Predict the structure.
Amino acid sequence: MPYEGNFLGAFLFAFLVVAPTEECAKCLCIRVAYRSPHFNEVMDGIVYGVAAAIGFATVENFFYVFEGGVSTGIARAFLSVPGHAMTGAILGYYMGMKKMNPESKKRFIEVGLAIAILFHGAYDFVLLTQTLLCLLIIPIMICLYFFYRKKVYLALKGSPFRAGRDEDLFRKP
């Protein structure tokens, strides 16, 4: 279905179909690792989230490249793969927060899933419109990067296994 000029269709498809489906699939993959005794810090959630996302992106890109050719694969390598990895990391961060704080009433997993869906949906929406809105992909990816970077920083800072390493990384200016 072409979405060029059909903003409502692109919006609904991106935010209600594609993004929730793909992010829930990643969540289910992370959930498998969630039960492991080796999942014992928040950073593990990020690692498992990125692994699930890269696996998903690999399978997805196989089909896109088969249909659209090598140029499609190259374009997706610079936007889609990092986008999947970062949303997977964000989702993994929140799943790690829930795992490390099981008594908390906070809805970590739901929040992480909602954030991942919002970034993923925005990414898909601007590309599906096939208009000048596509230029918004740059600020979306920049915002996604900084959000992802902050979650990695917090996970490393709170890691019980860092034992004082990288103190200058966490020193306040």
User: Anything to note?
Assistant: Residues 4 and 131 are 7 Å apart (CA to CA). Residues 7-156 form one domain.
